[in-house]
Predict the structure.
Amino acid sequence: MTIPSYLINLARDPERLAEMQARFRALGIAFTRVEAVDGKMMTAAELDTVCAPHRAWLPLKPNEVACALSHRKCWQMIADGAASHGCVFEDDMLLSPRLPAFLSDAAWIPADADIVKIEESFNRVWIDVPPREVGQGFRLGRVRSTHYRAGAYIVSRTGAKRLLAMTERISLPLDLILFDYALGKASRLVTYQMFPALAVQKKGAALEEIGSAVGRSDFKRRGELARQGRRYAEELRKLGHRLRGRRRTAIGFDES
């Protein structure tokens, strides 16, 4: 069965929708538009209802909450749907010409996968070795370290239900919820990274607008002692990856 695609788009961003429509049309990919929750329209009471404080992170900005709620709308559609998986896109993505081949069916996706990230990662990630060959020169690696951005990923129906249960209250930016092994839910999910990646964020896209945590450091504890503690913890995690034979991998975009 074809993996259905869901495109998150704000009502006040018709230009982005038009651009993504053209990209999907060029590849012959059908998609469902999911109207994004607009953080600018949320009241303080609405924010209080869906947010929960995090032990290590400062209160979320409205656009970050809205971003997570928008992705939750996609997860709900996937959880309620007939397909075994769904692919979630934000509306600022460039797409590989080889994307349609991997959305035509889900047979290549590991049975234990909650999430398959198909987006380029700006930071190198630790993955299990050897990676899985999935055809056309693409590989999948089980992700074992923090990686950011949530602009394009496949989620299983079971994974969508799990994510919905995990995010009834929101306390972190979405990409930290999904992909941060220290703060978020990543250690409770089975995530794979495809490489090369089938999607990449368009240069110049406003990360602040879409609610990404990239470039932010909103830790509650900002002193030098706290920074050293996080640095030592990260070094210990790196040592653990090396001892387990994992490989740190750069995830580039498929430009074929």
About this structure: The two ends are 26 Å apart (CA to CA). Residues 206-210 have pLDDT under 50 and may be disordered.
